[in-house]
Amino acid sequence: MSKGRDQGAVRGEVTESAPQYGLLFRVIAFFTHLQLGYLLRDGRHSLSAVRIFVFLEGVSALAIIAAAAYLARLPLLFPPLAPSAFILFRTPLSRPASPRVVFLAHCLGMLVGLLMLHLFSLLFPEANLQGDDALNWPRIFALALAMGLTSLVMILFDCAHPPATATALVAAMGYFDGLLQIAALPVAVLLLLAQALVFNRLLGGLPFPLWSFDPKVARQYPDLAGLGDQQTPYWDKVTEEVFERRKR
Question: In the chain, what is the straight-line distance between the N-terminal and C-terminal CA atoms, in Å?
Fold first, then answer.
């Protein structure tokens, strides 16, 4: 009998000294329950959690980039980063939000825009495309080709990210003044992606990709992958309904 009591006492001591009874474990468990990945399991608070999460991440991300630009005296603030931040934090598990797509799309958009700017500057030197903000026909054609070619290049490289077309327009309009700004754009994009990794993966508890898009993860979190409640996009459904009616 005493032997059974001794074993129970030992088991009680082991249980009380287990890691899950420690202060560090309880603190970690508390913050884990505040992660977006955990809150999404509760349908009552999932929508509110996503809204609050997107707001806080968007404010923090652009504030950090602005502070880094101010402290480092580097041109890290680019208008196309704002819609990219929205995609990264509203639909972080979608294909356009994967780090590979975001980085390649912005870099390709910048290169295409600069190429169109320099090409039309050589063809029409009198248009003064490098420094003149006024619209003229050479500038209009340069902007149009920059937009179209960027869209085509993103499709060819499987890196469709809509804000990158704005990067192409910014470059084609001559706002990248010198090599410093040209080199600053990839740095700013990488900084934004690093913040998305920290916010989404570490603080949010979401399986945010390290590089490439994962369709399996997207199916597990349809709302955060831009799929909504249905796996089939709206216009695909409309097309299917039209064909079904024609068959009848």
Answer: 82
Tokens 């202060």 correspond to 23
Q: Which two tokens stand for residue 213?
A: 């898009």
Q: Which amino acid belongs to residue 75?
A: P
* Residue-by-residue pLDDT tens, the chain, 248 positions: 555 555 554 445 544 555 555 544 444 444 444 445 444 555 555 666 667 777 888 888 889 999 998 988 888 889 999 999 999 998 999 999 999 999 999 999 999 999 999 999 999 988 778 765 678 899 999 999 999 999 999 999 999 999 999 999 999 998 888 899 899 999 999 999 999 999 888 877 789 999 999 999 988 888 888 886 544 555 555 556 666 666 66
Compute the Cα dihedral for 20, 26, 30, 31 and give only its sign.
negative
Rounded to 5°, the CA angle 105-111-117 comes to 135
At 166, the amino acid letter reads: A
- The two three-digit tokens of residue 159, written as one number: 């890196």
How would you class 150 by CB atoms within 10 Å of its CB: exposed for 0-12, middle for 13-18, buried for 19 or more? buried
72 to each of 65, 147, 184, how far by Cα in Å? 10, 31, 11
Quick one: which H or E segment has residue 66? Answer: helix 46-72
Q: How far is CA 93 from the centre of its chain?
A: 9
pTM of the prediction? 0.76
105 touches 162 (CB < 8 A): no
